[in-house]
Amino acid sequence: MEIEYKNQNNNLQKDLAEKFEIDHVYENQPIKRTLDQPNLSNKQSLLENLKNKILQVSDCELKKNSKQIVFNDGDNQSSIMIVGEGPGQKEDEIGKPFVGDAGILLNKMLEAIKIQRPKIYITNVVNYRPPNNRKPEPSEINRYSVFLREHINIIDPKILILMGSTAMEALFGQNLKISKERGKWKDLIVNKKTYQTILTFHPAYLLRQPDQKKYSWADLKMIRKRIDELGINLV
Q1: Do the Cβ atoms of 158 and 230 come closer than 8 Å?
Q2: Would the pTM of this model clear 0.70, i.e. be above it?
Q3: What pLDDT digit, counting tens, does each position of 163-181 carry?
Q4: I need a labelling partner for 42 at 20 to 30 A (CA). Which of 13, 155, 177, 231 fits?
Q5: Within a 10 A sphere around the Cβ of 140, how many other Cβ atoms?
Q6: How many folded domains does the chain comprise?
């Protein structure tokens, strides 16, 4: 009797659809109206695929002169993402970003605004150490910015922090000067999605120019304020 009822109900729906010229298709099952957020395993899989793409890069001076890829560090579920320039000697040896002197300073900067480093996500524009720690060339920045944009989409942060001119150039072009643009919130559009982004000095620059730390401190306070405004939990 239940099967007969379902068949009669389906026929009635079809008759009504034809009578009123309705193109909708009706189903007995309830419609799922919510989309699932990417879970941890899905995000990890996307990151592994991206890492493999970078590992397959060929004809790259950076890769030829490096010991290993330096891909990421931190919590890939975090709402805060930091992008630096590229690995230094220490990073190249260990395989993680920001573990040398600049990394020590970064840790202190985060602690100053009550952020524990393991609670955020960190990567660089280029994933291999530039020879003699030189600045990545424009062609290298452009090449790796494709991977960086995909990286940002995967992590999907609520706040994106770009540290240094290389990170700025990779995502906003070469016509800007970080001395003028730092401390400003900007909308960065990556694959039709907008990310709240702020530019600030790279810790390595601050080690060379300690008198500029006062500007970075102002930037850090702005970041802390935005974190609180968005209700981001970093505990």
Answers
A1: yes
A2: yes
A3: 999 999 999 998 899 999 9
A4: 231
A5: 20
A6: 1
